[in-house]
Amino acid sequence: SIAGWEPPAEIVTQLAREVDTSRGMPFVHEVWDTPGVGGKARILCGGLCVTGPPKLDAKLNLCAWLSVLTPVAFLFLVCSSFLWKHGPWLPACTAVLFVLTIALMLATSCTDPGIIPRPAHQLLIPGLQQEVAEAIGLAGQRGGFLRDILSTDEDPELMAVLEPKGYWWCQWCRMIQPPRAKHCRDCNCCVLREDHHCPFLNNCVGQRNYIFFCGFVVALCGLGATFVCGVLLWLFSEEPKQCLAELSVCFRDKPQNGALAFPPGSRAPGPDDPGGLDRPNHRRGLDLARPEGPVTAARPGDHPLPVFCCAELVTLAAMRPSPSFATHSW
């Protein structure tokens, strides 16, 4: 055998001594981390989820999730009310495409891409060797029998017959590799019809999840198109101007050098008027709650509701009568 590689039969024999087989053969996810059986890919949730290594693509995978969630959050939190007034079709399409994108993204990330079991893995599960031989197209032929996977050495005579057909010998998994299959060095596995290893989804894209990946790309493009349309409609409307106007009003009378800022027409607090509340601006601020509506500004820059400083707000809150819970009906 090759140095550092044990024959598959010895690996299975060693596992039989180490693993409790009183309840039957162990599950694949229980022995996947054993050297010579599995690779760097992870099998989670009892075999229901197959994904890539835990730390290799963590940063790029996080960037992919943020790239999808952040624009959609901005669209729904900032622009959704404006877009809904002009028709529900764009927010509805965006919501459907968002759900579809997330579902296909998870399906691509958590689905087995078509990992080819290694020889020790095939010996461990009864009937798996025949299934692998059928999947790689060697069922009933030389190279697809049980005796052909018992050694870690390459058979030059056998490969001379199979190489013209597109087969190859994987020097990492020590087994015959079918046409269009590739060995992923990130996951340390051979994958059927592998297209590439996607670091943003933290999984290989192969025979079994290629349809999910194509659907994810299409849904992501549609989601990006709806996002761009929605943001452009919002930008060319009056909503951004109103938001900027409100922000400018809030920061217009900003105090400088620690001095308290009082609105136009008001006076500083004095001994007879600690809160400075007997000024016209305070009266107009209180008139906002009148049924007939607020009093309009008398001149430009004189706002109905002035921007009070923190001290004035505290004074106003202290002067308001506290609610009486006795008058409430329980």
Essential attributes:
single chain; 330 residues; mainly alpha; two-stranded antiparallel sheet; two-stranded antiparallel ribbon; elongated; disordered C terminus
Structure description:
- The chain has 11 helices and 8 strands.
- The N and C termini lie far apart (83 Å).
- A two-stranded antiparallel sheet has the order 1-2.
- β7 (196-198) and β8 form a beta hairpin.
- It has 330 residues and is mainly alpha-helical.
Number of helices, where a helix is a run of at least 4 consecutive DSSP H or I residues? 11
Helical fraction? 40-55%
Query: In percent, how much strand structure appears in the residues?
Result: 5-15%
**How big is the Rg?**
35 Å
* Terminal residue distance: 83 Å
Order of helices and strands: HHEEHHHHHEEEEEEHHHH
Report the sheet with the most strands, covering strand number, pairing sense and barrel closure: 2 strands, antiparallel
Low-pLDDT runs of 5+ residues are 275-279, 281-290, 294-318, 322-330
Taken from the alpha-carbon principal axes, the silhouette is: elongated
The total count of strands amounts to: 8
Biggest sheet, strands in spatial order? 1-2
Structural class: mainly alpha
Q: Round the mean pLDDT to the nearest integer and report it.
A: 77
